[in-house]
Amino acid sequence: MKIAVFSTKTYDQEYFARYNEEFGYSFSFYETALNKDTAKLATDCDVVCVFVNDIVNKETINILKTNGINLIALRCAGYNNVDLDAAAKENIKVVRVPAYSPEAVAEHALALILTLNRKTHKAYNRVREGNFSLKNLIGFNLNNKTIGVIGTGKIGETFCKIMKGFGCKIIAYDIAENENLVKLGVEYMPLEKVFEQSDILSLHCPLNKHTKHIVNKASIASMKGGVMIINTSRGALIKTEDAIEGLKNKKIGYLGVDVYEQEENLFFEDHSEVIIEDDMLLRLLSFPNVLITSHQAYFTKEAMDQITTITLENIKAFENGSELVNEVRQ
Ligand code: NAD
Q: pLDDT, tens digit, for every residue of 111-142?
């Protein structure tokens, strides 16, 4: 099997090399993202392997099919960037890594909360410059705060358990209740109530037509003043311009995001020596109470081990004609 791997960094190549011994596949690694213009790079390959910001739309899929691709192997959980209808029409199978390390993402959500709250990023710089003042570093106790969780699947469940350990009250909204969490004392309620009652709101649902811009002008208006919003899921869950308005009028007290609506042309790359043209991102970066990380929540050794092995096993199952346990269908 020959696999064209898009959006790769050296660490992706290292992990594939480490685990490929028992599979013996041949890889073509591309730093560029997969899209309609780069799809031709997969000529002569059997499989394309893609990540979160590859644009696998109808046009791209048609080109892939012409080039003989029969499998799209996502090395991530979310699949909002793949046109599943178009893939089905072309009889191209789509597989993903549904669960690799929910702890990685849930723990990063906690890192965003603690950093925004206790301002360790600012303290680090201050102390290094000989500034031992505590001015404006005041935080708040997490104990007894109400945490609203939207989406209580694998990552949301792990996040709820972590926050329980901090003595928080957890309220949640999901289209399906998670029995483990109900037993743990998590209280499910309608989405509007979660928005109204949360001191900290953390998003863990997938991006789809129902959840796009779930955090918008109206939902922000219904939240508590000074609410902390955390998004480690997908950027477009938050309507960025409405979040900027919420920060300007101080309704939002803290914003911590690992994902951003327009991240695909920026994240994972070094843009430190170029002029960034995304004015919304720059406006976000100008707020002292906003913390942005570059889609790194998944990035732990444990997660990379699992992402790589499950991706290779998905491809092996396809090669053997076995059941595709991680297939994604519309
Ligand atoms: P999951 O499928 O286990 O859980 C998703 C949960 O969302 C499910 O319980 C589902 O019922 C719920 N849901 C679906 N539609 C909903 C809606 N309209 N409103 C409320 N809840 C809804 O997925 P997971 O493994 O927990 O991952 C969650 C998301 O995290 C992924 O979709 C992905 O976008 C994101 N993610 C981000 C990173 C990162 O590095 N930042 C890494 C992995 C996953």
A: 999 999 999 999 999 999 999 999 999 999 99
pLDDT band at 330 (very low <50, low <70, confident <90, very high): confident
DSSP secondary structure code for residue 98 in this structure: -
Q: What CATH architecture applies to the domain 2-100+300-320? A: 3-Layer(aba) Sandwich (3.40)
The catalytic position among 234, 269, 319, 329 is: 234
Which residue, 256, 231, 240, is CA-closest to 78?
A: 231
pLDDT tens sequence across 285-324: 999 999 999 999 999 999 999 999 999 999 999 999 999 9
Which residue intervals of the chain bear CATH 3.40.50.720? 2-100+300-320, 102-292
Stated pTM of the model: 0.93
Residue 57 burial (CB count, 10 A): 14
User: CB under 6 Å to ligand 1: residues?
Assistant: 77-78, 99, 102, 105, 150-156, 173-176, 204-207, 210-211, 232-234, 258-259, 295, 297-298
What is the whole-number distance in angstroms between the Cα of residue 129 and the centre of ligand 1? Answer: 41
Q: What is the C-alpha separation between 122 and 144, in angstroms, rounded?
A: 25
